[in-house]
Amino acid sequence: DSGVTQTPKHLITATGQRVTLRCSPRSGDLSVYWYQQSLDQGLQFLIHYYNGEERAKGNILERFSAQQFPDLHSELNLSSLELGDSALYFCASSVDRQGPYEQYFGPGTRLTVT
Amino acid sequence: GESVGLHLPTLSVQEGDNSIINCAYSNSASDYFIWYKQESGKGPQFIIDIRSNMDKRQGQRVTVLLNKTVKHLSLQIAATQPGDSAVYFCAENRPSGTYKYIFGTGTRLKVLA
Question: Nearest-CA residue of chain B relative to A47?
Fold first, then answer.
């Protein structure tokens, strides 16, 4: 158990819908990273938050947004869903204290868009 | 898109032998590298990391080697066990004032009994 929790574990929804994925980092970690993992793309970095502030964006679509709350949990919002958004979504947390440190991943949310 | 050089090859190793998994990274300015293990249905699990000011780092049964000259990273697993069967990813952090990790597609390690 990495100490990072993600909910829900599975999500099935229809095209055009909107979903919210939730992540709680390990105790003491200020950084939260979101990744998408699909069969043909591997792990793709989406976005990084540190102590409530957005720090870096990767291959994140405009239909996707995220935020990190004062209690450090984070939510990833996916809207106008398309079939191609079906994937595993992972969050990871890290201390990232004065430099990058190892990331600890949650168990993931499997999103299926039908 | 950007990637750290793996295309999910498969490495088959006899139980008890040593395994070597290789990774070519693309950015000479990358300063931090991580190896992860991912078992089926689970999230990636941290194995070992190395910073660019080091050439070698050892953990329990694992060693990471970094060759900055040729931008190559390797993970050595000693006395490979059935529980080591998984997909292994390397990731590089590209410094740009922020932490932005690039992952490869992974190498599948199969341990043969």
Answer: B100
